[in-house]
Amino acid sequence: MEQFLFFVFSILALGGAVGVVVLRDPIRAALALVGCFFCLSCLYLLQAAELMAVLEVLVYAGAIMVLFVFVIMLVEKHDEPILPRNLLRRVMAPVKIIAVAVIALNFAVVLKRAKLPEPDVMPVGFGTAREIGRLFFRDYAFEFELGSVLLLVAIVGATMLTRKDKKEVVVVVETKKIDLPTVTGH
Amino acid sequence: MVPTVPVTSYIIVSLLLFSIGTAGVLIRRNAIVVFMCIELMLNAANLALISFSRQHGDMTGHIYVFLVMAVAAAEVSVGLAIIIQVARTRGTINVDDLKDMRG
To answer: Between chains, do B11 and A111 touch, taking CB under 8 Å as contact?
Structure first.
């Protein structure tokens, strides 16, 4: 049963990932990515990572992808040409794919030879919110706080970046106008 | 619960996801899609972390995944803000056309 679920969800996840790369419409690519995240969260659940599976759906499929879809709709539609205009890039695209595939194949061979040991017995309460919370506040409190500060800084930075401040633009234009005659006067 | 799927299978899936994400970053030219492919790569890394975490019966990998999610959220919010500003000022988000800072 576990093997069957693993195959179904990993194939669906890989299909969603391929969809992100192949689909031309960014909205469709975003939806393929949401499907991929759902399947990934099921794979997490198969590995007894309950809290992480829930967070995957909440944070990735929920919050982050909503942000993506908003931005896709905010930015006007810029259709990407199927083939790049530059001839060199047109030739390079398959070469890049082959290069990535070769590297992936190398890693797969190494993995095949590595013979990873069989999983240990999982401790009681593995992957539950209670145990992860205990670990966070006992051993990794500093990292947790660092993550919170990072998120706060990101919020402030994002709002500053997207703010339309017309006053500043006017000031910049005016100083340029004043600077010009003083330079020519010398 | 006795796990029947070996850890190697999960790592292979993670490897494939990461490769697809890398290929997407290399060949797509829409900045938003490039960002989505980076998210795909981060998730492939998360899957590997969770698999190794189960293999060792140690939950430190879950802590890593949690922090990766926090960093990804921060990265996406700032990155998309930058993309919006670029689209406003340049009128394009094609990464081939945005080459002013090329040396």
So the answer is: yes
Which segments of chain A does DSSP mark as H helices, in order?
2-22, 26-46, 50-55, 65-74, 87-114, 129-138, 141-162, 166-185
* pLDDT tens string A151-167: 999 999 998 888 876 55
Query: CB contact, 8 Å: A73 with chain B?
Result: no
Contact A150 B70 (CB under 8 A): yes
Contact assignment for B85 to A103 by CB distance below 8 Å: no
Shortest Cα–Cα distance, A165 to chain B (Å): 12
Residue A73: how many CA atoms within 13 Å on its side-chain side? 5
CA-angle at B101, arms to B96 and B103, nearest 5°: 100
Q: ipTM > 0.85? A: yes
B48: which residues sit within 8 A by CB, 6+ positions away? B10, B11, B14
Strand partners, B30: B94
Phi, psi of A128 (to 5 degrees): -85, 160
Check: CB of residue A46 under 8 Å from CB of residue A2: yes
Q: What is the pTM of this model?
A: 0.84
